[in-house]
Amino acid sequence: MKPRHDSAIAWASSAIAAKWPGAEIVSQTPLKGDASSRRFWRVALAQRKRRAPESVIVIDLGPDDLPLYARALGLYPKSMREPPWVNVHRFLKSFEVPVPELYGWSAADRALLVEDIGSVPLVDAARAGDAADLYRDAVRELLRIHVTGTERRDPRCVAFAVAYDERLFAWEMEQFVEYGLWEVAPGAAANELRSDIARLAHQLGRLPRVFSHRDFHGNNLFVQGESRIRVIDFQDALMAPAAQDLAVLLTTRDTSELITPAIESRILDFYYAGRVRAGGLGLSYGEFLTSYQLCVLQHALKVIGRFVYLERQGIAGYGRYLPYALAQARRILTSARDEFPRLAAALAP
After folding, report:
1. Domains of the chain
2. What CA–CA distance (Å, rounded) separates 220 from 63?
3. Residue 126 and residue 138: Cα distance in Å, rounded?
4. Which of 48, 113, 185, 285 is in the most buried spot, having the most CB atoms within 10 Å?
5. What is the distance between the alpha carbons of residues 241 and 236, in angstroms, rounded to a whole number?
6. Distance of alpha carbon 164 from its chain centroid, rounded?
C-alpha cells in the first residue's frame, strides 16, 4: 500500500493535469494541520498556458473524516455519498460564503484539490493590525452564515440533520471530567460537579439554534488583501445556539490576548444589532448575553478536557492554551457562582 502522502500527491497530479492541461507539480510543502487525521500540502504548479493558479492545496481526508463525537453519538448517516467537506461546501457556496474553491475531489482516494487562500490566518493579521476591525469583518461573515444559512435550510446539507443539543454539550464536557479536571483542579471530586455540568448542558440545549460553522475561530479564518475574510474547516457544521460560534471566535485558545473586554462587548453589540436588522434572534439582548456566557463556559470546559487529552495522545502544543481556557471559565463563574456553585468552587484560584 502506498503511503498516504504518495497516494494523495499522485491523485493530485492527475487531477491537476486533467483540470489544467499542461500544468504540473513542481514542489510540495506540508502544512500544519489540526488535531484530526487530515493532512495538507501546498503544491506549486508550473504551467505552459498560464491557466492554472500558481499553487493549490491538496487535502488528504484520512481514513475517517467524521469527528469523534459524531461517531460516538451516531449523528451522521451510516453511509454518505460524499465527504461532509464537499457536502457543506456546496451549501455554503450557494449563498456566497467566501470558502475556497473546490477544484476536484475523489471519493476513492479520499482527497480534495482546493484553492490556496494564502498563509495569513485572522489571528496573525489581528496581531499585526487592528484586531477590532478584523474580528468585526469576521462577524459580518458569521452573520451571513447564521442568517442566510438558516433561512435557506436545505435537507441535502448534512449540517441540518445534526444538532448541538443537550446530549452533545454534555458529551463534550465528559472529557473535562475525565481528563481536564485533575489538570486544573487537583483533588476536585468529579462526581460532585456532575449536577452543575448537567445543568449547563440542559440550559444550552434549550436555546434556539441556527446554521453554525461550529469551529469559527481565528485559525480557521484567513485574511486576503487588506481585509477579505476567507472561511475554512467548515465540514463539522451543524445546528447550534448562535452564541456558540461567537464564544469560539472571541475566547478560544489565546484569543484573549487580542480581544479585550471592550472589544468583546462591541463585537457582541455588532452581532446582535445585525440579527435585529435581519429579523431578530428570538432572544432579548439580556438573554443573548446570558447565552453567550453559557457558551463561553461550556467551550472553556470542553477545550480543557480536549487539550489535555490531545497532549496525552502525543499531539503536542495544546497544553499552553490551558491557562487561557481556565481563565475564561473562572471569568464566567465569577458572575454565575450561584448557578454553578460546585464548578465555581472547584475552579476557584
Report:
1. 4-115 (3.30.200), 125-346 (3.90.1200.10)
2. 22
3. 11
4. 113
5. 15
6. 13
Q: Please list, in sequence order, all residues whose beta carbon lies within 8 angstroms of the beta carbon of residue 13, skipping any fewer than 6 positions away.
A: 24, 25
pLDDT at 42 over 80: yes
Do 322 and 183 meet the contact criterion of CB atoms below 8 Å apart?
yes
**Chain-wide mean pLDDT for the chain?**
94
Grid coordinates representing 41?
Answer: 500540502
> How far apart are alpha carbons 140 and 134 in whole angstroms?
10
pTM of model > 0.85? yes
Residue 48: φ, ψ to 5°: -95, -30
d(CA 49, CA 71): 45
Contact assessment for residue 215 and residue 248, using Cβ atoms and an 8 Å cutoff: yes
- The 10s digit of each residue's pLDDT in 269-319 is 999 999 999 999 999 999 999 999 999 999 999 999 999 999 999 999 999
Report d(CA 211, CA 144) in Å as an integer: 10
CA distance 151 to 153: 6
Separation of alpha carbons 219 and 20, rounded Å: 30
Say if residues 234 and 88 touch (Cβ distance below 8 Å): yes
Question: Which pLDDT score, from 0 to 100, does residue 80 have?
Answer: 85
Cell of 213: 460553522
How many CA atoms lie within 13 Å of 277's alpha carbon, on the beta-carbon side?
Answer: 10
Q: Which amino acid is at 210?
A: V
What is residue 348's DSSP assignment?
-
Instruction: Annotate 116-137 with three-state secondary structure.
Output: CCCCCEHHHHHHHCCHHHHHHH
